[in-house]
Amino acid sequence: MPEVVEHGFFFKTLVLLCAMCGMLLWHQNREKGSISTSPEFKKFQATYLFVYGCAVMGDWLQGPYVYALYSSYSFTKQDIGVLFIAGFGSSLVFGIGLGSMTDRYGRKLSCLAYCGIYALSCFTKHWASFPVLLLGRVLGGIAYSILFTSFDSWLISEHNRKGFPAEWLNQTFQYATICNGVVAIMAGQLGAVVRDVFDSLVAPFDAAVVFFGVAAVVIAGYWVENRGVKEVREGDGEGGGV
Description:
It contains nine helices and no strands.
Protein backbone atom coordinates (compact mmCIF):
# COMPACT_ATOMS: atom_id res chain seq x y z
CA MET A 1 0.00 0.00 0.00
CA PRO A 2 2.73 2.56 0.83
CA GLU A 3 4.38 1.90 -2.57
CA VAL A 4 1.09 2.61 -4.36
CA VAL A 5 0.71 5.88 -2.45
CA GLU A 6 4.33 6.80 -3.20
CA HIS A 7 4.00 6.13 -6.94
CA GLY A 8 0.72 8.05 -7.00
CA PHE A 9 2.37 11.02 -5.34
CA PHE A 10 5.26 11.07 -7.82
CA PHE A 11 2.88 10.77 -10.77
CA LYS A 12 0.83 13.72 -9.56
CA THR A 13 4.04 15.67 -9.03
CA LEU A 14 5.11 14.84 -12.59
CA VAL A 15 1.82 16.10 -14.01
CA LEU A 16 2.05 19.27 -11.93
CA LEU A 17 5.63 20.00 -13.02
CA CYS A 18 4.78 19.40 -16.68
CA ALA A 19 1.85 21.79 -16.38
CA MET A 20 4.09 24.40 -14.75
CA CYS A 21 6.70 24.02 -17.50
CA GLY A 22 4.01 24.41 -20.14
CA MET A 23 2.62 27.55 -18.49
CA LEU A 24 6.11 29.04 -18.12
CA LEU A 25 6.91 28.35 -21.77
CA TRP A 26 3.60 29.84 -22.88
CA HIS A 27 4.19 32.94 -20.76
CA GLN A 28 7.71 33.46 -22.12
CA ASN A 29 6.57 33.08 -25.72
CA ARG A 30 3.72 35.50 -25.10
CA GLU A 31 6.08 38.16 -23.70
CA LYS A 32 8.64 37.78 -26.48
CA GLY A 33 6.09 37.24 -29.21
CA SER A 34 5.60 33.88 -30.84
CA ILE A 35 8.38 32.81 -33.19
CA SER A 36 7.12 31.83 -36.61
CA THR A 37 9.17 28.92 -37.95
CA SER A 38 9.12 26.90 -41.16
CA PRO A 39 7.81 23.33 -41.55
CA GLU A 40 11.32 22.22 -42.50
CA PHE A 41 12.71 23.60 -39.25
CA LYS A 42 9.94 22.05 -37.16
CA LYS A 43 10.76 18.64 -38.62
CA PHE A 44 14.47 19.19 -37.98
CA GLN A 45 13.81 20.34 -34.43
CA ALA A 46 11.44 17.47 -33.65
CA THR A 47 13.95 14.90 -34.91
CA TYR A 48 16.73 16.35 -32.79
CA LEU A 49 14.59 16.59 -29.65
CA PHE A 50 13.39 13.00 -30.09
CA VAL A 51 16.97 11.74 -30.33
CA TYR A 52 18.12 13.93 -27.46
CA GLY A 53 15.21 12.77 -25.33
CA CYS A 54 16.09 9.11 -25.93
CA ALA A 55 19.77 9.81 -25.22
CA VAL A 56 19.14 11.48 -21.86
CA MET A 57 16.44 8.95 -20.96
CA GLY A 58 19.04 6.19 -21.23
CA ASP A 59 21.35 8.17 -18.98
CA TRP A 60 18.74 9.07 -16.35
CA LEU A 61 17.39 5.51 -16.12
CA GLN A 62 20.67 4.26 -14.68
CA GLY A 63 21.38 6.79 -11.94
CA PRO A 64 19.18 5.56 -9.08
CA TYR A 65 20.33 1.94 -9.40
CA VAL A 66 24.11 2.07 -9.81
CA TYR A 67 25.00 2.04 -6.11
CA ALA A 68 22.21 -0.39 -5.25
CA LEU A 69 23.40 -2.82 -7.93
CA TYR A 70 27.00 -2.70 -6.75
CA SER A 71 25.84 -3.28 -3.17
CA SER A 72 23.76 -6.27 -4.26
CA TYR A 73 26.96 -7.77 -5.69
CA SER A 74 28.45 -7.58 -2.16
CA PHE A 75 31.16 -5.07 -3.00
CA THR A 76 32.55 -3.01 -0.13
CA LYS A 77 32.05 0.75 0.08
CA GLN A 78 35.70 1.17 -0.81
CA ASP A 79 35.28 -0.92 -3.97
CA ILE A 80 32.16 1.00 -4.93
CA GLY A 81 34.01 4.25 -4.37
CA VAL A 82 36.74 3.13 -6.76
CA LEU A 83 34.14 2.30 -9.39
CA PHE A 84 32.55 5.73 -9.14
CA ILE A 85 35.91 7.50 -9.24
CA ALA A 86 36.82 5.52 -12.36
CA GLY A 87 33.71 6.79 -14.10
CA PHE A 88 34.26 10.42 -13.15
CA GLY A 89 37.96 10.17 -13.95
CA SER A 90 37.42 8.73 -17.42
CA SER A 91 34.89 11.48 -18.15
CA LEU A 92 37.42 14.11 -17.12
CA VAL A 93 40.34 12.64 -19.07
CA PHE A 94 38.40 11.84 -22.22
CA GLY A 95 36.57 15.16 -22.17
CA ILE A 96 39.84 17.07 -22.59
CA GLY A 97 40.40 15.95 -26.17
CA LEU A 98 36.81 15.23 -27.12
CA GLY A 99 36.24 18.47 -29.02
CA SER A 100 39.11 17.99 -31.45
CA MET A 101 38.27 14.31 -31.92
CA THR A 102 34.64 14.98 -32.82
CA ASP A 103 35.68 17.77 -35.19
CA ARG A 104 38.06 15.42 -36.95
CA TYR A 105 35.95 12.25 -37.16
CA GLY A 106 32.45 13.72 -37.18
CA ARG A 107 29.77 14.68 -34.68
CA LYS A 108 27.20 12.26 -36.03
CA LEU A 109 29.71 9.44 -35.59
CA SER A 110 30.43 10.68 -32.09
CA CYS A 111 26.72 10.61 -31.18
CA LEU A 112 26.46 7.08 -32.57
CA ALA A 113 29.50 6.17 -30.49
CA TYR A 114 27.69 7.55 -27.44
CA CYS A 115 24.81 5.14 -27.98
CA GLY A 116 27.09 2.16 -28.54
CA ILE A 117 29.54 2.89 -25.73
CA TYR A 118 26.83 3.56 -23.16
CA ALA A 119 24.98 0.41 -24.22
CA LEU A 120 28.15 -1.62 -23.66
CA SER A 121 28.50 0.02 -20.26
CA CYS A 122 24.97 -1.11 -19.39
CA PHE A 123 25.66 -4.67 -20.52
CA THR A 124 28.58 -4.94 -18.09
CA LYS A 125 26.12 -4.56 -15.20
CA HIS A 126 25.09 -8.19 -15.71
CA TRP A 127 28.40 -9.46 -14.29
CA ALA A 128 29.33 -9.33 -10.61
CA SER A 129 32.97 -8.96 -11.60
CA PHE A 130 34.97 -5.97 -10.41
CA PRO A 131 37.18 -5.72 -13.56
CA VAL A 132 34.12 -5.94 -15.84
CA LEU A 133 32.21 -3.35 -13.83
CA LEU A 134 35.30 -1.14 -13.77
CA LEU A 135 35.43 -1.30 -17.55
CA GLY A 136 31.74 -0.42 -17.62
CA ARG A 137 32.33 2.65 -15.46
CA VAL A 138 35.14 3.83 -17.73
CA LEU A 139 32.90 3.40 -20.77
CA GLY A 140 30.07 5.20 -19.00
CA GLY A 141 32.34 8.14 -18.19
CA ILE A 142 33.40 8.42 -21.82
CA ALA A 143 29.78 8.33 -22.99
CA TYR A 144 28.78 10.96 -20.44
CA SER A 145 31.33 13.39 -21.88
CA ILE A 146 30.02 12.78 -25.39
CA LEU A 147 26.42 13.42 -24.33
CA PHE A 148 27.07 16.99 -23.23
CA THR A 149 29.36 18.00 -26.09
CA SER A 150 28.73 16.24 -29.38
CA PHE A 151 24.94 16.50 -29.47
CA ASP A 152 25.00 20.28 -28.98
CA SER A 153 27.85 20.65 -31.48
CA TRP A 154 25.99 18.67 -34.12
CA LEU A 155 22.84 20.73 -33.57
CA ILE A 156 24.60 24.08 -33.86
CA SER A 157 26.55 23.10 -36.96
CA GLU A 158 23.56 21.59 -38.76
CA HIS A 159 21.30 24.49 -37.77
CA ASN A 160 23.77 26.96 -39.29
CA ARG A 161 24.37 24.81 -42.36
CA LYS A 162 20.66 24.83 -43.13
CA GLY A 163 20.59 28.62 -42.80
CA PHE A 164 17.99 28.80 -40.03
CA PRO A 165 17.80 32.06 -38.01
CA ALA A 166 19.75 32.23 -34.74
CA GLU A 167 16.63 32.80 -32.60
CA TRP A 168 15.26 29.46 -33.76
CA LEU A 169 18.35 27.77 -32.31
CA ASN A 170 17.64 29.40 -28.94
CA GLN A 171 14.16 27.91 -29.07
CA THR A 172 15.55 24.43 -29.67
CA PHE A 173 17.90 24.71 -26.70
CA GLN A 174 15.02 25.96 -24.58
CA TYR A 175 12.92 22.96 -25.53
CA ALA A 176 15.89 20.63 -24.97
CA THR A 177 16.34 21.95 -21.42
CA ILE A 178 12.68 21.38 -20.64
CA CYS A 179 12.87 17.97 -22.30
CA ASN A 180 15.80 16.97 -20.11
CA GLY A 181 13.96 17.87 -16.92
CA VAL A 182 10.73 16.14 -17.88
CA VAL A 183 12.59 13.04 -19.10
CA ALA A 184 14.49 12.86 -15.80
CA ILE A 185 11.21 12.60 -13.90
CA MET A 186 9.77 10.11 -16.37
CA ALA A 187 12.94 8.01 -16.12
CA GLY A 188 12.53 7.77 -12.37
CA GLN A 189 9.01 6.43 -12.78
CA LEU A 190 9.85 4.10 -15.67
CA GLY A 191 12.93 2.75 -13.91
CA ALA A 192 10.90 1.88 -10.82
CA VAL A 193 8.24 0.12 -12.90
CA VAL A 194 10.80 -1.90 -14.87
CA ARG A 195 12.65 -2.86 -11.72
CA ASP A 196 9.44 -4.03 -10.02
CA VAL A 197 8.07 -5.89 -13.05
CA PHE A 198 11.27 -7.86 -13.67
CA ASP A 199 12.30 -7.91 -9.99
CA SER A 200 15.85 -7.05 -11.02
CA LEU A 201 18.20 -4.13 -10.41
CA VAL A 202 19.73 -4.77 -13.84
CA ALA A 203 16.40 -4.23 -15.64
CA PRO A 204 16.65 -0.40 -15.72
CA PHE A 205 20.04 -0.70 -17.42
CA ASP A 206 18.55 -3.03 -20.03
CA ALA A 207 15.74 -0.52 -20.57
CA ALA A 208 18.37 2.17 -21.12
CA VAL A 209 19.91 0.06 -23.89
CA VAL A 210 16.56 0.10 -25.71
CA PHE A 211 16.51 3.90 -25.72
CA PHE A 212 20.12 4.05 -26.89
CA GLY A 213 19.20 1.69 -29.71
CA VAL A 214 16.25 3.83 -30.81
CA ALA A 215 18.42 6.96 -30.74
CA ALA A 216 21.13 5.24 -32.79
CA VAL A 217 18.65 4.13 -35.46
CA VAL A 218 17.27 7.65 -35.91
CA ILE A 219 20.76 9.20 -35.93
CA ALA A 220 21.97 6.73 -38.54
CA GLY A 221 18.91 7.20 -40.74
CA TYR A 222 18.13 10.91 -40.47
CA TRP A 223 21.20 12.84 -39.37
CA VAL A 224 23.91 14.02 -41.74
CA GLU A 225 27.57 14.14 -40.78
CA ASN A 226 29.27 17.42 -39.96
CA ARG A 227 32.75 18.24 -38.77
CA GLY A 228 34.82 21.22 -37.63
CA VAL A 229 36.97 23.61 -39.59
CA LYS A 230 38.49 20.66 -41.42
CA GLU A 231 35.51 20.84 -43.77
CA VAL A 232 36.25 24.49 -44.47
CA ARG A 233 40.00 24.11 -44.85
CA GLU A 234 40.25 21.10 -47.10
CA GLY A 235 43.73 19.77 -47.28
CA ASP A 236 44.56 20.88 -43.75
CA GLY A 237 45.25 17.86 -41.59
CA GLU A 238 43.94 19.33 -38.33
CA GLY A 239 40.36 19.59 -37.11
CA GLY A 240 39.22 22.60 -35.14
CA GLY A 241 36.91 23.70 -32.39
CA VAL A 242 33.22 24.38 -32.56
